[in-house]
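Recap slide: DNA-(apurinic or apyrimidinic site) lyase, sequence and predicted structure.
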Amino acid sequence: MPEGHSVHRIARQFALHFVGHEVAVSSPQGRFAEGAKRLDGRRMTDSRAIGKQLFLEFSDDRWLRVHLGIYGAWDFAGELTADASIGAPRVTRLRMSEQEKPEPDAGQFPPPPVGAVRVRLLTERTVADLRGPTACEVLTPDEVQAVIDRLGPDPLVDDPEAGEARFVAAVRTKSTPIGVLLMDQSVVSGIGNVYRAELLFRARLDPHTPGRNVPEEVLRELWRDWTVLLREGVRLGQMMTMDGLDEEAYRAALADRADRHWVYHRAGLPCRVCGTPIVMELAAGRKLYYCPTDQR
């Protein structure tokens, strides 16, 4: 599932290529036909990510909310940059989900919809096709605010001190294990399976510790570390959670996901610090990876 850094990068693509332009909106698959009619021909005026939620604002106070979930992805085509930053290489097709993948030029613009495209957003120069989202709906400003009010703080959106205070206060009132709380989007926005496992290991924190038993300073450090990792993820387009790497190891980590993480997806492999086999167990229906020696 795409985590917070991915959605912020998707929002940047929309800000760069769609905001300020009139957008033709359609639903090639047909499941979003009524919603598409409400947005078609309007100007996109804002693109905003909060945690795993994407909000696209259109004229006349209409918003498109998208949550990609496990299977969702955006396919962009046309005049693009590879990472939505100044000076980035140009590409003509780009798939954005948990990972980002430049794809072969379709040879025409706009390319024909491929597969079950829930919604297509089209300007004169760029098209974005959405497939497989968990949520895709048109909302009013009040409805958007109601969704946002249910979300925990996001380090790239909230005031840093206020966001930290909200996170600490939310965790310290709960007996739920911290390994579950970090995945609760009402507690903190954007953390998924990968970042959850890596944050806990970096803090050497037992994932089974009840939230209210985690020392306040440890929670504050978790929030600050999440801020660092999220910013780095947005910059790189990858969840790089290992630090202290030399130049060669850093290049290897960028090239191979298996070299980017301390514990995630390493069940049975030796801990990179102590050598103890990494444990995998289910926590609230999701795979949780941790070191039983360093995180006790």
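The first helix runs from residue 4 to 17.
The chain has two domains: 4-149, 160-290.
(End of recap.)
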